[in-house]
Amino acid sequence: MPQDIVNTCPQTREGVINTYFLEHRAKLLDIAAYLDRVDRGRGDDPQDFRDRAFREALKILSSDVPHRARRILELFSDMSHEIPQSAEGMKGAAGAVPLATEDRS
Amino acid sequence: MKYIDPHIHMVSRTTDDYQRMAQSGCVAVTEPAFWAGFDRSSVQGFFDYYRQLTEYEPRRAAQFGIRHFSWLCINPKEADDPGFAREVIAIIPDFLERENVLGIGEIGLNKNTRNELIILEEQIALAEKHNQLVLVHTPHLEDKLKGTRLIMDALAASKIEPGRVLIDHVEEHTVGEVLDRGFWAGMTLYPDTKVTPQRATDIIEMYGHERIWMNSAGDWGCSDPLAVPKARLEMARRGHAQTLIDKVTFDNPLTFLSQSPNFQLDE
Predict the structure, then answer these.
(1) Closest-CA distance of chain B to residue A73, Å
(2) How far is A44 from chain B (nearest CA, A)?
(3) Is A14 helix (H, G, I), strand (E, B) or coil?
(4) Are residues A14 and A39 in the same domain?
(5) Shortest CA distance to B235 belongs to which of B199, B187, B190, B182?
(6) CA-to-CA separations, B259 to B123, B202, B207, B224, in angstroms, rounded
(7) Are strands B184-188 and B165-167 parallel, antiparallel or unpaired?
């Protein structure tokens, strides 16, 4: 339990699992099937920054460190400080950004 | 049970939705001005939209016993042309006198550009000049964290008290900063983006129930006008007290919105 937040969850851990296990078992299988689908896709590995960010996020999922949702959202966030003049020519939100070690151009 | 959906775009919804919301306990909605899914080509297009928000929608909602209130602005997605945006902003003051108008919104940023920031600052100044509440749209997905911080900095540079500003579409990575800086926080319940009823309930469990509300932001995209009652059900399912459920879905919106003299509910 992280110390920097309150916790008013009324359920026991067992209660949470009883309530949500099947629902999230299904979501986990959705992710597994999605990754299999990417593997089965035709063509070469596209080296897509969204795919790399997604797989990095999976490491956060399986860690024991709390605030997983917040940390994944931060991983997917634009942490730059530049402010462009106009949105002209910009694409819509992609949902992820190149990882810090990648080319952001 | 009764609840308020404090952010929903009813111009994009059918009359059936008003009926289902009323049946689910909705007693009031507030509707911010937003992007229609395409860019309007003239100031007249906004004039007609503001008339729809202040004249037509309140009558349509009233058929089902729902009070309808609105917020006016030029949304950030159409604010990237400052010249055009200023022409639109110039027609807003006359509408602020309409009896269902609560303030300026949903202003904010979309792609975090300087042009958007300039118009955001000018609309913050408009709210300050006319002593209006402010409802803020924060950017989507990867742009949200940076945009939320830019918006809060712009608001902090004004004389508007943070307690008169609701910053919407918060998620786990923005809610803490929003509340820490004294603003109200809104959670938008969307099926694919923003938060689910489960995550909204998690956030309340982790960040408390003060200065926070939830809304459906139902519009023309994938969204659910019954998202708020579904979140109420989610909270009840976990065993939260009815008083807490009522606080975040009725009492808190009532407290924030009642800062506007125009927000009155039927007895």
Answers:
(1) 6
(2) 26
(3) helix
(4) yes
(5) B199
(6) 19, 28, 23, 28
(7) parallel
Cα distance from N-terminal residue to C-terminal residue, chain A: 39
The answer to whether residue A34 neighbours chain B at the CB level (below 8 Å) is no
**What is the count of structural domains for chain A?**
2
CB atoms within 10 A of CB B206: 21
Range of the domain at A35: 10-43
d(CA B237, CA A19): 9
CA angle B229, B231, B236 (to 5 degrees): 95
A19–chain B nearest CA distance, Å: 8
Query: Given CB atoms, is A97 within the 8 Å cutoff of chain B?
Result: yes
Residue A71: which residues within 8 A CB-CB, separation 6 or more? A60, A65
pLDDT digits (tens, 9 = 90+) for B48-95: 999 999 999 999 999 999 999 999 999 999 999 999 999 999 999 999
Nearest-angstrom CA–CA distance, B68 and B47: 19
pTM across the whole model: 0.96
Least CB–CB distance from A6: residue in B80, B206, B238: B206
Q: B3-257 architecture in CATH?
A: Alpha-Beta Barrel (3.20)
Which one-letter amino acid corresponds to residue B6? P
**Are A86 and B110 a contacting pair at CB < 8 A?**
no
CA torsion angle for A85, A87, A90, A93 (degrees, to 10)? 110
Structure ipTM: 0.94
CB contact under 8 A, B112 and A84: yes
Q: Which residues contact B99 (CB under 8 A, 6 or more apart)?
A: B262
* Domain ranges within chain B, ordered by starting residue: 3-257
Return the residue of A nearest to B140 by Cα: A93
State yes or no: pLDDT of B1 exceeds 90. Answer: no
B39 vs A: CB within 8 A:
no
Domain presence at residue A15? yes
Residues A51 and A37 in one domain: no
